[in-house]
Amino acid sequence: MSEEAKSLNFIEHIVEDDLKNDYKKEELRFRFPPEPNGYLHIGHASSICLNFGLGLRYNAPVNLRFDDTNPAKEEKEYVEAIKKDVSWLGFEWDTECYASDYFQQLYNWAVILIKNGKAYVDSQSSEDIANQKGTPTEPGKESPYRNRSVEENLELFEGMKNGEFSDGAHVLRAKINMASSNMLMRDPVMYRILHKPHHRTNIDWCIYPMYDWTHGESDYIEQVSHSLCTLEFLPHRELYDWFLDQVVSSDKLRPKQREFARRNLSHTVVSKRKLLQLVEKGVVEGWDDPRMPTISGLRRRGFTPESIRNFADTIGIAKRDNVVDVSLLDFHVREHLNKIAPRVMAVLNPLKVVITNYEEGKEEWLDAENNPEDESAGSRKVPFSREIYIEQEDFREEANRKFFRLKLGGEVRLKNGYIIKAESCTKDDNGNIVEVQCTYDPKSKSGSGTEESLRKVKGTLHWVSIPHAITAEVRLYDRLFTDATPDSHKEKDFMDFVNPESLEKVTGYLEPSLKDAKIGDRVQFQRMGYFNVDKDSTSEHLVFNRTVTLRDTWAKLEQKE
């Protein structure tokens, strides 16, 4: 077997086999079919990458089709958000399609099914219909309306379409087999009455097709060759094929439904219903809250399209559902941002340091490398002065030999600057250290080439010159849930696991090169993590979101536990 063949996932093997037997390469067409009832999440990203990836691999068109058959939950806002997400991920669709474009054709086909004795109008309540479905081991019971005449069914169905009945008064059901071992084949509902305006058809229709009836027929209309679904649709395949049997002609390509496993992400939920709960109950600020697993939330947090595509490629396509550790997603964004993000200095928990032997009022501008991973990134100037901020945790009065930061009598190097030595410190009335007095070695400037500058000290600290520092609101985001699988507990609600420390807002002190940072700019705060400028930012009030820490701190916590 060739290396290329070995590297194919099982969906690609299916396509390859079909090309050998049933399809021509020019007949290949794929689709990504979201329902516009919420924002796309990281699980959808895998499906997007799969379908559009197949399009790129086989130079085949990919449709973006909105399965908009439920006006009660669907909105134009979601349509626009989905289009933005797919484009942002770097993919282009061939045709923008809507299931609502096919309402008339679907209705016409439904009429043919009624005429052929394959569909009937049921006037029972939804509860009665559900009760008659039976169980996996017991057959269902036939509806008392199952044997209505074709003429009566046609008249009722037309009345449903014309708005003559209230919601729930009737449904149209396919007449298949109430004793089928597949409960989905027990006369499934094809249409329901819903007097609600649709985001595209407004009030033109008051009956709406169900997903199972719409899905395969839409694929057929668009001549989609491979309809790729997640595993929960495997039992639906038999129904998908039955509905196609009723309409296909020999001169047109017949779509195939095939299934792949859903990839769930740890420490979050990816159910649109549950994500909507988080929004509606105010746990998060909206669908694009940076703690959300939505693509818009990840984008706002600072994730890159490349990191999400690489993540999807790494987890691949499988035949079994499983939970992927969120740390793998974090790894991919760290790896990409490490290559592209400029390094800057920011202090988030400031401690004042006074360099007593540095001349008052003096300032100098030091050379600082923008990104050691990218030679073309160049360098910038950062100001240095007598008074600087360092992080509180970077100083201790006393410390053991394993503490390589600043301690009384100890030395550290300031990044891009000088070696300093802590001589004394000042405390407030509560015993908290509020200032450290240091001396510096004026011959130890980084890059100067002097003997003193080459002297090795074990610790290097980031810092910011106090007179030059600009302030910003810094939002420190963490995992939204404390449990790896918050929606897997029968005895508890997933809301019980919301992490109360998923967001901390602090004032950061930043080097002045960030003064003109634009929304979406990504940087590494040295020794702190990767951050990006939030959409709430203004020229007077900068806001930075933490995308991810430099290291996986959760892994350390979980090891301790």
Automatic annotation (TrEMBL):
It comes from Flagellimonas chongwuensis. Belongs to the class-I aminoacyl-tRNA synthetase family. It catalyses: tRNA(Gln) + L-glutamine + ATP = L-glutaminyl-tRNA(Gln) + AMP + diphosphate. Its main location: cytoplasm. It is found in: Cytoplasm. Residues 126-147 are annotated as: Disordered. This is Glutamine--tRNA ligase. Its EC number is 6.1.1.18. Monomer. Residues 341-441 form the Glutamyl/glutaminyl-tRNA synthetase class Ib anti-codon binding domain. Coiled coil: none annotated. The gene is glnS. Residues 28-338 form the Glutamyl/glutaminyl-tRNA synthetase class Ib catalytic domain. GO terms for biological process: glutaminyl-tRNA aminoacylation; glutamyl-tRNA aminoacylation.
